[in-house]
Design brief:
Largest sheet: 9 strands, mixed
Helix content: 25-40%
Shape: globular
Length: 434
């Protein structure tokens, strides 16, 4: 069987939100003959601490330069590699499946193949122009390129033997991948586009354009056929179940959800091993959270999407309702209302409430404070224009969207609730977990 050693080069700079997810997927690959080399360009956030604490097998190379040159960073990592094949992935890209690496590798059985690049898909919080660009550039059909030098190092693989004769250009700030492909694509050699080797790429590949224009395009690209019938499942994420007056707080939430006939199943994703013996209901399935999903840096949306992919997707639901147990005062008929008001022209419906602060500021990229909302009027005369999400109150999402990004999406419809309805147990009492 064809199983050459692969050196995976991961490039990072301030990727603490994405790097844990990226490496978690890499180390979950079915193809096991690989090493991982991280080339970091002076990260000032928690990128390196996350890697050192959770992924001890990763070899870290520090590349510090005020003028980042992608070709130089890649060459630096490849020079330290041992593999005959070199995979390259950006630190903010996340492989979509556990065969990502294998899909890339198998194309190199053909000796004429010198490079392969995979699909890049937008996340559901990517900007509209990125949705457009990625959808246009990375389709579903496999391609063999003998003249077209399009190639993209955010998700790619090359032969090290080819690189030794043609290293990446260390003088350019962009398109080092396409320049390299142009120089090696000759004498019958081939570049493969492999759509099965897919990653989620939040940032996309192009520059931001006219947002109003591309927003319309991105909606067209993302629009799916409307579901004729709703099959809704509910996920309740919790770690240790909270007890209040001797009863599990989650039981009240379950009782409210059980009244909704459209909800087919209730899944509780938890690390609490005692909960299963206390809650008995055919409609409820207790899922002990997988060990690899218990790491804090992964974030709840990633955990939710992976839980869905592994245990719930096979039911083929149309929508997913996510509810958190900690909310004490949901509006009457809240769950019925979000189901009733769901609009298939949007990806999700999210509860929001008015922010009651008079003066709200934000800090821009340069550190300068700018007002978002400011007034000197008394509170009773202020028309509130700033809203906050209360996703845990209950957010309903299309299943096809949920699989990639959990509850996160740029295509949201909102349902307004009163601030009093968003009170959580954490705001009312100091509690301890049993």
């Amino acid at each position: 069987m064809y199983k050459p050693l692969v050196s995976i080069i991961v490039r990072t700079k301030n990727e603490n939100f994405w790097i844990g997810k990226c490496l978690n997927e890499i180390f979950s690959q079915k193809y096991k003959n690989y090493e991982v080399i991280l080339v970091d360009n002076g990260s000032k956030d928690k990128t390196l601490s996350i890697v050192k604490k959770n992924f001890s097998k990763v070899k870290i190379i520090n590349y510090k330069s005020k003028n980042f040159l992608p070709g130089k960073a890649l060459n630096l990592g490849i020079k330290k590699s041992k593999g005959s094949l070199i995979a390259m992935i950006s630190g903010h890209c996340v492989p979509k499946n556990d065969n990502w690496l294998n899909y890339l590798v198998q194309n190199f059985k053909n000796s004429d193949v010198i490079a392969c690049y995979g699909r890049q898909e937008p996340s559901d919080i990517s900007e509209p122009n990125d949705v457009r660009d990625l959808t246009y550039l990375f389709g579903l059909d496999k391609k063999i390129q003998t003249k077209d030098p399009f190639f993209h190092n955010a998700n790619s693989m090359i032969r090290k033997s080819t690189w030794k004769k043609n290293q990446f250009d260390e003088t350019v700030k962009h398109i080092e991948d396409r320049l390299w492909a142009s120089s090696v694509l000759k004498n019958g050699k081939k570049i493969i586009y492999e759509p099965n080797a897919s990653v989620i790429h939040f940032h996309g590949v192009g520059h931001h354009g006219n947002l109003k224009r591309v927003s319309t395009i991105s909606k067209m690209l993302k629009k799916k056929s409307k579901n004729k019938k709703k099959l809704i499942v509910c996920i309740i994420p919790l770690k240790k179940a909270i007890k209040l007056n001797g009863k599990y707080l989650v039981e009240k939430t379950i009782n409210d959800i059980n009244k909704i006939k459209e909800i087919n199943k209730i899944f509780i994703s938890t690390t609490d091993k005692k909960l299963g013996s206390k809650i008995k209901d055919k409609k409820i399935i207790i899922l002990q959270r997988d060990k690899d999903l218990q790491k804090e840096f992964l974030g709840l949306e990633y955990v939710l999407s992976k839980t869905y992919e592994r245990y719930i997707k096979k039911l083929k639901p149309s929508h997913v309702l996510v509810v958190e147990e900690i909310y004490l005062n949901r509006p009457k008929n809240f769950f019925q209302n979000i189901i009733k008001n769901f609009d298939d022209d949007y990806d999700s419906i999210v509860p929001i409430f008015k922010n009651s602060s008079n003066n709200i500021w934000k800090k821009d990229a340069t550190g300068v404070m700018q007002p978002l909302f400011k007034t000197n009027l008394p509170s009773e005369f202020v028309e509130r224009k700033i809203f906050e999400e209360a996703k845990g109150l209950g957010t309903l999402v299309k299943a096809e969207i949920f699989e990639n990004s959990g509850r996160e999406s740029n295509s949201q419809k909102f349902i307004e609730v009163d601030k009093k309805n968003t009170i959580t147990i954490k705001e009312v009492i100091n509690y301890s977990f049993d």
